[in-house]
């Protein structure tokens, strides 16, 4: 049976087990949190993003989770700069055209600020610029896609937390915690 690990990746952690970055400034990696041989990330989360990262020892499961051809839904809680109007929300729902082509339509709704853990480092706060939270669900996963989508409609992402991938959620996992579950 395939092993599947749900991990709440903190901000600043690379979605890999080793750091091939510059010498002398080691960055946090998955190996700082998870000591299980033979598992690998099914997809990625940017270093400055947080939340659910799935890891498995099964190549077929890894492909089913990460490959856009399977259209696995990924839900993000996104704090954006400014207050998106109906046109901005509709544009995200229809799909926007990025430099690497059009995105698939997304499910988008404004939400109240979620009850999340404090982020380290904290999100910059500016008294003169309001922010809002969106819940965005996509079925692809291009490089920095959600950040590029919100910037495209004039509302840069301040904080991004992946809450769900397919049927798996972050429920009950604090930053840096992981648990095994059934695939």
Protein model, in words:
By secondary structure, this protein is of the alpha+beta class. It has 2 domains: 86 residues, Alpha-Beta Plaits; 93 residues, Alpha-Beta Plaits (2-Layer Sandwich), CATH 3.30.70. It is built from 3 helices and 11 strands, in the order E-E-E-H-E-H-E-E-E-E-H-E-E-E. Strands 1, 2, 3, 4, 7, 8, 9, 10 and 11 form a 9-stranded mixed sheet that branches. A two-stranded antiparallel sheet has the order 5-6. The model has no long low-confidence stretch (mean pLDDT 93).
| Mean pLDDT reading | 93
Secondary-structure element string:
EEEHEHEEEEHEEE
Which structural category fits the helices and strands? Answer: alpha+beta
Would you tell me which CATH topology of the largest domain applies?
Alpha-Beta Plaits
The CATH superfamily of the largest domain is known as: Alpha-L RNA-binding motif
For this structure, what is the CATH class of the largest domain?
Alpha Beta
Rg is 17 Å
pLDDT under 50 segments (min length 5)?
A: none
Overall number of strands: 11
Number of domains: 2
Tell me what the CATH architecture of the largest domain is.
2-Layer Sandwich
Helix segment tally: 3
The coarse overall form would be globular
Percentage of helical residues?
A: 10-25%
């Amino acid at each position: 049976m395939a092993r599947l690990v749900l991990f709440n990746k903190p901000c600043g952690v690379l979605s890999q087990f080793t750091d091939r970055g510059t010498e002398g400034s080691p960055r946090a990696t998955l190996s700082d949190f998870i000591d299980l041989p033979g598992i690998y990330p099914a997809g990625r989360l940017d270093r400055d993003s947080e939340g659910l990262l799935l890891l498995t020892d099964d190549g077929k499961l890894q492909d089913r989770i990460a490959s856009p051809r399977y259209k696995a839904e990924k839900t993000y809680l996104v704090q954006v700069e400014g207050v998106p109007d109906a046109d901005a929300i509709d544009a995200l729902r229809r799909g926007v055209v990025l430099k690497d082509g059009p995105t698939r339509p997304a499910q988008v709704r404004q939400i109240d600020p979620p009850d999340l853990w404090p982020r380290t480092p904290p999100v910059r706060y500016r008294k003169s610029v309001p922010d809002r939270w969106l819940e965005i669900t996509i079925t692809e996963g291009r490089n920095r896609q959600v950040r590029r989508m919100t910037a495209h409609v004039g509302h840069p992402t301040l904080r991004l937390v992946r809450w769900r991938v397919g049927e798996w959620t972050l429920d009950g996992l604090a930053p840096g915690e992981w648990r095994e579950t059934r695939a």
